[in-house]
Amino acid sequence: MLYPSIFGENLFDDFMDFRFPTFRDLGFEDVDRKLYGKNAGRLMKTDVHEHDDQYEIDIDLPGFKKEDITLTLEKGNLTVAATKGLDKDSKNEKGRVIRQERYSGSMQRSFFIGRNVTEEEIKAKYEDGVLKLLVPKKEAAKVPEKKTIAIEG
């Protein structure tokens, strides 16, 4: 198909390059994607630091209360679960919710910390939206490689 051209350029070049402004162009950025990426609702940002005798685990849980967070230890796996529920159709003194951008729901994350660590040895502290866990380092009990068995008789 032939298009009209003026001075060797396509007449429709400038017209076809027009694009409508987006929210980003207008100065509105997708804040939750900037902070947590695509899976913002299901992700716990975590930092793990290793020390000589323990691991220090810092987990970001902004907006959660201490009562919303549960820690369980099963077969050497430490599971951190957080649940925050809000009724979407609720009406309070502020009025009916029209738009909600704050996270509500549940999320969890597991870490293998070893089978020799007990619940009593793990220290947990929640302050300013950050859950800080101190997990001691424990090596597995060493099993002798070769052991002789005495035979009676």
How would you describe this protein?
Helix content is 7%, strand content 35%. It has 153 residues and is mostly beta strands. The protein has a domain of 95 residues: Sandwich (Immunoglobulin-like). The strands form 4 sheets. It has a 4-stranded antiparallel β-sheet, with no helix packed on it. The protein has a 3-stranded antiparallel β-sheet with strand order 5-6-9, with no helix packed on it. Strands 1-2 form a two-stranded antiparallel ribbon. The longest helix is centred in the first third of the chain and has 6 residues. The chain starts with a strand and ends in a 17-residue tail after the last strand. The mean pLDDT is 76.
Question: Layout of SSEs?
Answer:
Blueprint: E1 5-6, E2 9-10, H1 13-16, H2 31-36, E3 46-50, E4 54-60, E5 69-74, E6 77-84, E7 91-92, E8 95-96, E9 105-112, E10 123-127, E11 130-136
CATH fold description of the domain at 42-136: Immunoglobulin-like
Provide the succession of SSEs.
EEHHEEEEEEEEE
Question: Which structural class do the helices and strands define?
Answer: mainly beta
**CATH domain class name of the domain at 42-136:** Mainly Beta
Radius of gyration: 28 Å
Low-pLDDT stretches: none
| Range of strand content | 35-45%
Task: Round the mean pLDDT to the nearest integer and report it.
Answer: 76
- Spatially, the strands of the biggest sheet line up as 3-4-11-10
What is the CA–CA distance across the termini?
102 Å
Shape, principal axes of CA atoms: elongated
